[in-house]
Amino acid sequence: MKVDYEVAIDTVKAMMAEPASALFDPQNCPVRDVFAHIGDKWASLILQILGLRPHRFGELRRAIPDISQAMLTGTLRSLQRDGLIYREVFPTRPPSVEYGLTELGQSLLGPVSALVVWTAEHHGRIRQSRTQYDLDNPPKKKKL
Fold first, then answer.
1. Residues whose CB falls within 8 Å of the CB of residue 78, separated by 6 or more in sequence, listed in order
2. 27 secondary structure, DSSP code
3. pLDDT tens digits, one per residue of 37-80
4. 27-136 placed in CATH 1.10.10.10
5. DSSP 8-state secondary structure symbol assigned to residue 67
6. Are 23 and 29 in contact (CB under 8 A)?
7. What are residue 55's DSSP bridge partners?
8. In contact, 56 and 97? CB cutoff 8 Å
9. Would you tell me how many other CB atoms lie within 10 Å of the CB of residue 112?
10. Bridge-partner residues for 87, per DSSP?
11. CB neighbours (10 Å) of residue 2?
């Protein structure tokens, strides 16, 4: 997905033209509202995995071994609530459940994938910057 930066900049300008209270009010800010869910590390991983094909809960859990069952369940519910994924229950014994991307979720794959690629390309530089910052700004010792 190619980003039209002029459109993106015009959108930001239009948002900035709104009263400041709307931009900084979490109840009214669309960026905060959506990023609170899709900006989460687990959500971006789940979206990437479901972008390959639908998965069952156990498959998702195995694909992201460091996520807890509760966190996976909560993130899936959040993504489903936002209309980004669907949950399909199959009438088997025991019932099996499959998760996949909706059309809206598919439309988010391009931007999320671009961010994942950018992160992979720049991770080394970011880690170097963090190391240098930590060297230049050692923690202050607490006074007793």
1. 37, 43
2. T
3. 788 889 999 999 999 999 999 999 999 999 999 999 999 999 99
4. yes
5. S
6. yes
7. 99
8. yes
9. 19
10. 99
11. 6
Predicted TM-score (pTM) of the model is 0.76
Positive/negative CA dihedral, 77, 80, 84, 87 = positive
CA 110 to CA 112: how far, in whole Å?
A: 6
Q: Do residues 55 and 47 lie in contact, with contact meaning Cβ atoms separated by under 8 Å?
A: no
DSSP 138: P
- Four-CA torsion 125, 43, 73, 62, nearest 10 degrees: -60
Kindly list the domain boundaries of the chain, sorted by start residue: 27-136
Q: Can you list the positions of beta strands (E) in the chain?
A: 55-56, 85-90, 96-101
Write the pLDDT tens digit of every residue in 18-43. Answer: 666 555 666 677 777 788 878 888 99
Residue carrying structure tokens 């709104």: 18
Residues in contact with 61: Cβ distance below 8 Å, sequence separation at least 6, in sequence order = 67, 69, 72
Vertex 32: Cα angle to 108 and 25 (nearest 5) = 155
- CA 58 – CA 99 distance, rounded (Å): 11
Mapping DSSP to helix (H, G, I), strand (E, B) and coil, where does residue 88 land? strand
